[in-house]
């Protein structure tokens, strides 16, 4: 059955081969993200969230089930994804500008060199890194590196943006800064994205849908929709409705961890 | 700033020479026990032509051996860095090979290729110096964080692109660190062969002739000439490092 989702993951099963036999990480994973949607995926540690990002990027092919982007089945890496990880992995021998331009050296692009550079400068300005174009990564703070890494993920206007705990290693204030920057970026440069995170506040602040995965092997356990109410501010995290959503998610995580039975939260 | 960078080491060298001269003078050592810097000047004066030709012999053979070590060491390091199986297979062999004292290999190679003086000298310089390069390149490649690979692979980059854009530049600081060690090793290799080979050439042979003729100041003069060549080559590597891997230096 075809759906109108941009990213569509149906009945995916996947196991890793280990010395002591196959280790199932995903079993019955369902996930679909409409065009322009932003889905946060939360779940207990080691439940296979990163495996999910590798599947969408085409870096891994699932044992069973299918991963489709724009209706076509992913069987190999395609150039239409942008990725950012907890480790910003910037190339230290390049300037920030050259780092952001890296994807344009690899994917087919219609942009000329000058146009690419202009776009990179525009993105850097959007995340507040104007004036840092010619600095080396070693001269930037952790939060700034992460912002540069985000620009690199967006430079080639990917169909899918995959964020694997990009703010996980940052301090709380820097993280909240970056959440707001993400909203600004999404308004200016609309994208379809998947965000892997451990932070429930982050998930309800950034995403329009939060998917809770069960413990390993992971399946889709619970889906929470966050209706679009326009631009969000940090104040929105301290409202009764936000508290209610966080509570729901927290209980679902406890279920996923096996600490309380599923019936207790229904 | 530039002037200071030249002056400070220069003053250090002069202080060292004065201390050396003073030590020999105050202890009253004869020149066969320990020659003093003032004994060396006549030696350089008398043999400067020999020093030039022999010094050149030593230098070019060391450099050729080193270049071969870089090519072979990098290739070997790449094979071991990218393939776990090759690493498991080659490491014990390589470590065993490196553990053999090269002083014992020199006479064997000298005999094996007797008469091919240039060849066996370059060969020893190469054998003695490729190990650190191979190890550093393989470690540099095998410790590349998977995210680096994933960033490029998700864009559809080939293995070759990943190597040129990321793995190679990321390994350069380790590579140059190893090359600095290899430069000194290659000099040791060249000189061992020059000393051991019958009818050898190069500074090692000059050292040997000083020994047979009981010309002790000449032997010390050769040591200083070798130190000078070593410094020149070392700083050449430093200059290359600054050009290609200067980004890794956090002290500036």
Structural account:
The complex is a heterodimer of chains A (266) and B (252). Chain A has 266 residues and is of the alpha/beta class. Chain A has a domain at 1-78 and 192-266: Rossmann fold (3-Layer(aba) Sandwich). Chain A contains 7 helices and 10 strands. Chain A has helices at 49-57, 96-101, 113-126, 142-154, 172-188, 200-206, 240-256, and strands spanning 7-18, 21-33, 38-42, 64-69, 72-73, 81-85, 160-164, 192-196, 209-213, 220-225. In chain A, the strands form 2 sheets. Chain A has a 6-stranded mixed β-sheet, with helices on both faces. The longest helix of chain A has 17 residues, at 172-188. By secondary structure, chain B is an all-alpha fold. Chain B has a single domain, classed as MetI-like (MetI-like fold, Orthogonal Bundle), CATH 1.10.3720.10. In chain B, 84% of the residues lie in helices and 0% in strands. Chain B has 9 helices and no strands. Chain B has helices at 2-27, 37-82, 84-99, 102-112, 117-142, 146-153, 159-196, 203-212, 216-245. In chain B, helix 2 crosses helix 5, helix 2 (37-82) runs antiparallel to helix 7 (159-196) and helix 7 (159-196) packs antiparallel against helix 9 (216-245). The radius of gyration of chain B is 22 Å and the shape is globular. In chain B, 36% of the residues are buried. The model of chain B has no long low-confidence stretch (mean pLDDT 88). Chain A binds chain B through residues 54, 57-59, 76-79, 81, 83, 85, 87, 89, 91-93, 102-103, 105-107, 136, 138, 152, 156, 162, and chain B through 145, 147-148, 150-157, 161, 165-166, 169-170, 172, 245, 247-248, 250.
CATH class of chain B: Mainly Alpha
Chain-averaged pLDDT of chain A:
87
Share of helix of chain B, binned: over 70%
The SS-based structural class of chain B is mainly alpha
Helix content of chain A: 25-40%
Report the end-to-end length of chain A measured between terminal Cα atoms.
Answer: 30 Å
Strand fraction of chain A equals: 15-25%
Please identify the oligomeric state: heterodimer
Succession of helices and strands of chain A: EEEHEEEHHHEHEHEEH
Q: Would you give the CATH topology of the domain at 1-78 and 192-266 in chain A? A: Rossmann fold
Distance between the termini of chain B: 13 Å
How would you characterize the largest beta sheet of chain A?
A: 6 strands, mixed
CATH-scheme architecture of the domain at 1-78 and 192-266 in chain A? 3-Layer(aba) Sandwich
Count of discrete alpha- or pi-helical segments spanning 4 or more residues of chain B: 9
The CATH C-level name of the domain at 1-78 and 192-266 in chain A is Alpha Beta
């Amino acid at each position: 059955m075809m759906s109108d989702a941009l990213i569509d993951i149906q009945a995916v099963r996947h196991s890793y081969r280990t010395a002591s036999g196959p280790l199932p990480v995903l079993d019955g994973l369902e996930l679909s993200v409409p065009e322009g949607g932003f889905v946060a995926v939360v779940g207990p540690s080691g439940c296979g969230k990163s495996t999910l990002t590798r599947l969408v990027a085409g870096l891994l092919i699932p044992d069973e089930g299918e991963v489709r982007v724009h209706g076509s089945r992913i069987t190999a890496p395609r150039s239409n994804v942008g990725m950012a990880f907890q480790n910003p992995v910037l190339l230290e021998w390049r300037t920030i500008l050259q780092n952001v331009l890296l994807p344009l050296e690899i994917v087919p692009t219609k942009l000329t060199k000058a146009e690419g550079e202009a776009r990179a400068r525009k993105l850097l300005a959007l995340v507040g890194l104007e004036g840092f174009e010619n600095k080396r990564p070693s001269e930037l703070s952790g939060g700034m590196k992460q912002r540069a890494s985000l620009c690199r993920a967006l430079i080639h206007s990917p169909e899918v943006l995959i964020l694997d705990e990009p703010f996980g290693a940052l301090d709380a204030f820097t993280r909240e800064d970056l959440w707001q920057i993400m909203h600004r970026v999404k308004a200016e440069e609309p994208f379809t994205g998947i965000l892997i995170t451990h932070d429930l506040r982050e998930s309800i602040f950034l995403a329009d849908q939060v998917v809770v995965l069960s413990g390993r092997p992971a399946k889709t356990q619970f889906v929470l929709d966050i209706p679009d109410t326009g631009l969000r501010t940090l104040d929105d995290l301290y409202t009764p409705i936000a508290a209610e959503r966080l509570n729901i998610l927290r209980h679902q995580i406890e279920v996923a961890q096996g600490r309380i039975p599923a019936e207790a939260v229904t | 700033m530039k002037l200071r960078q030249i002056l400070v080491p220069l003053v250090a060298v002069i202080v060292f020479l004065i201390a050396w001269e003073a030590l020999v003078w105050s202890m009253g050592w004869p020149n066969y026990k320990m020659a003093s810097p003032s004994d060396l000047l006549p030696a350089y004066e008398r043999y400067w032509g020999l020093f030039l030709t022999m010094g050149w012999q030593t230098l070019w053979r060391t450099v050729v051996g080193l270049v071969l070590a870089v090519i072979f060491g990098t290739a070997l390091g790449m094979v071991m860095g990218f393939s776990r199986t090759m690493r498991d297979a080659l490491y014990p062999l390589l470590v065993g090979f490196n553990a053999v004292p090269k002083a014992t290999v020199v006479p064997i190679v000298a005999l094996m290729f007797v008469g091919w003086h240039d060849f066996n000298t370059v060969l020893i310089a190469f054998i003695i110096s490729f190990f650190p390069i191979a190890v550093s390149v393989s470690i540099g490649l095998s410790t590349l964080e998977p995210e680096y690979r994933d960033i490029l692979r998700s864009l559809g980059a080939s293995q070759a692109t990943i190597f040129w854009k990321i793995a190679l530049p990321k390994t350069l600081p380790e590579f140059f660190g190893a090359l600095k060690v290899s430069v000194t090793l290659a000099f040791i290799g060249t000189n061992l062969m020059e000393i051991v080979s019958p009818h050898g050439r190069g500074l090692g042979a000059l050292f040997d002739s000083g020994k047979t003729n009981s010309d002790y100041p000449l032997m010390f003069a050769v040591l200083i000439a070798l130190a000078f060549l070593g410094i020149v080559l070392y700083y050449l590597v430093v200059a290359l490092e600054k050009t290609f891997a200067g980004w890794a230096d956090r002290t500036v």
